## 1
Amino acid sequence: MHELLSLNVRQKISLSTQEEELLKTFFIPKKLRKKQFLLQEGEVCQYAAFVEKGLLRSYTVDKKGNEHILQFAMEGWWISDLFSFYSGEPSVYMIEAMEDAELLLIKKDRYEDLLQAIPSMERYFRLLLQNNLIATQRRLNDKLSLPAEELYLKLIDTCDSIPQRVPQHMIASFLGITRETLSRIRKQLSSSHKK
Amino acid sequence: MHELLSLNVRQKISLSTQEEELLKTFFIPKKLRKKQFLLQEGEVCQYAAFVEKGLLRSYTVDKKGNEHILQFAMEGWWISDLFSFYSGEPSVYMIEAMEDAELLLIKKDRYEDLLQAIPSMERYFRLLLQNNLIATQRRLNDKLSLPAEELYLKLIDTCDSIPQRVPQHMIASFLGITRETLSRIRKQLSSSHKK
DNA sequence: CGCGGGTTTGATGATGCTCAAGCCCGGTGG
DNA sequence: CCACCGGGCTTGAGCATCATCAAACCCGCG
């Protein structure tokens, strides 16, 4: 059950065999069925979750009822609401399973314990956050500078696994456009491509 | 010269007096005059910079020549192109001083040395990245879900120091709208506010 | 005085949104 | 086996928001 996590950690730092065993003891396995929630708006985010299997998303809902997807998380990814997790404030995000999922959860105090017990995990999480920040900055910059069509093109050629598993209207929501607009863009692309 | 940095570090972790002295030895002081660049598009980003004084911005320039501001950095903030700094790839960002500035620079290999020499700095940078990620995610989510006017309102009541020091057209560029649109929004706000 | 940087204003147009309807397809139950 | 339903995708018409382009204005400064 913890294979992916170990692998993921060992890609960034090196651990002794004992440490690797110790690591596992900090996590709680949890299964989620499609459409179940790990976190709902207004709750305090208790866990950081590592995805062993399945696909989740985090999103907000605005006053008009529209959803805006902040993140997808598939096998080998982490998902949480960092702010709520850290501060203990209620969250504004929903985290939902888009497919049946198997997660490894860690609570905040256990997370702190883990960093004490295996100091090199500090480095692991730093690298994780760093990569995440780079990706988020890039996405923000794209959203600031590119029109809808180019956002879509950029998504499909940087990350082809997402479009495979995610329905169109959620891709639209991830890009910050409507499903209708995305549909039209795709139509136009496929027709201009054929000629 | 290193007061702000020490202060900033001590807010997140505790250091012995020796460590604090040691810390300083890793940084190169550097002054920049208004409109000078720390980094230009196409260069590899050699430094992470801590701002002791002044105000900088990082931005990209798109094909049409429009600028898109990713970040402002004032006293007590860090600025860099993380991706280029880490990977050694050429950067797509410009980093420019908007006011005369005093910086503390650290090179990549020295940065690695620092983490070796003072392991608790790993934690400092982790917390830094975490806060930065939270802020960037929030900004992205706002950009995905809010219209121009609300973006502006949100900016002025969360961060009043920016509008003080930054010309309007750069605020517009930070929000991802045009100067003209921002000007009209402000006009409309001030008139509706008076009544 | 004239220049440059920043802001404002107006006219026009494009991009993307809203609302409403229809379609496709796989699953379910009579 | 067929009818029906729901989820997701598409299409069209009209509209709102925001961008573009061009010009004028304001003001501090050499």
Note: Chain A has two domains: 3-144, 146-195.
## 2
Amino acid sequence: MREHDLPEIRALELFRTMSEESFAELMHAAYLQTFPTQVQLISEGDLADFLFILLEGRVELLGSTAGRETTMAIIKPFGTFILAAVLMDAIHLMSARTTEKSRVLMIPARNIRDLLAKDGDFARAIVVELSSCYRAVVRDQKNLKLRSSVERLANRIISLHNAQGATGTVILPYDKKTLASLLNMTPENLSRAFGTLKAYGVQVDNERICLSDLTGLETLAQPNRLIDERV
Amino acid sequence: MREHDLPEIRALELFRTMSEESFAELMHAAYLQTFPTQVQLISEGDLADFLFILLEGRVELLGSTAGRETTMAIIKPFGTFILAAVLMDAIHLMSARTTEKSRVLMIPARNIRDLLAKDGDFARAIVVELSSCYRAVVRDQKNLKLRSSVERLANRIISLHNAQGATGTVILPYDKKTLASLLNMTPENLSRAFGTLKAYGVQVDNERICLSDLTGLETLAQPNRLIDERV
DNA sequence: CGGTCGGTTGAAGCTAATCAATTAGAGTGG
DNA sequence: CCACTCTAATTGATTAGCTTCAACCGACCG
């Protein structure tokens, strides 16, 4: 543990409300690790030994079955992952892999569960974190079930555009292969979907996207705050 | 509140560990209502005023956007719903509608949040409930993204078969239209998928399904405990 | 008895996946 | 520096999966 990171971790929703001693205890047990890119941090089906908190870099959560694989989510700093499995002392439903060099805080599951048992404030903080994770997956599920792939792409572009300050330009925060998997498309299909969106003022140049007809794009996408907004 | 129901409610994971007085307080504030079938209990986008606990009957959770609608889940007794929205004092991401005459316990969101703030044990119980809801949605998401519709149907049949005692016969617990929506299929597509499964020993007679080649069906379905088992 | 609803079937069309080929760029090593 | 390889991304051709529209059947209901 480098002292330097403590304030940032302390500021996370999950740890903000806990007592000074509880926090110190957790941090004492925690490991801070730096991993290169493309390292498998977690494998589906393994027991949850650690709660992970991403401090720097990027981590992909993956689901797989029958030889197929899909990207379930992309974790950015300072996101936590694998919280539910840790709390339930259960096996991982997803794998996790770094997609960049990443700095990760690993807190032994044991310590999380012990603290949960004795610190009510921590339990409440976890309730908030879990609730918002849960709602995020529900939104994602609605997105998947109710929209075509072109619509999913259009809405994702609009979301990114808003998140990046609505300047008319969007920078894709991940490569197109990953974006395709996130949106449940093949890379070929994504490429063609971008082609379809040209007619709606979407110009793609590598990871840079320019939007020249936002209202047209929104008419196609029909963004919905119950799906697309992080509320 | 009928006295008669109290022990069953008390036995729920969510309430089992709380103090006698806290429980009494909650129940005092709660309403027990009986609704006919096809009643809209909750509308997407409304604020979460109550936590719902289904005591009897059946409730469908629905998501919608742009005039489309999909079944997100079916709640059976004694399931809770809308917990995350209540906890976060947020708007509903899903609608809820009875599909049978149903008896529902409604606890004001206010009381839930108050109790969460002062009762650590209740917070812990909620953590468990939320974690398992969360993991259920993740499983469902993997199911959707990684399997074709015939595979989803085959696995659903196998799951139901196991849940009903693996007797070689399965009774569909909901009508086919609903099953189709749950599996993200059209009713026509579901009907054809049943046709496809005939070759795997699946005989359908209304809501009764007979399985004569379970191993064949499982070879097709490739059930996966990280998707299909309620762990 | 006509009407409605759930379910099935057929035909046609659309969406998306697959397979194959090509290009462009990044990284490697002689 | 230039071949060489590797990978991401795109494009075309084809096929598979799924939806849509339409017709139809049978059960249930007023």
Note: The longest helix of chain B spans residues 120-146.
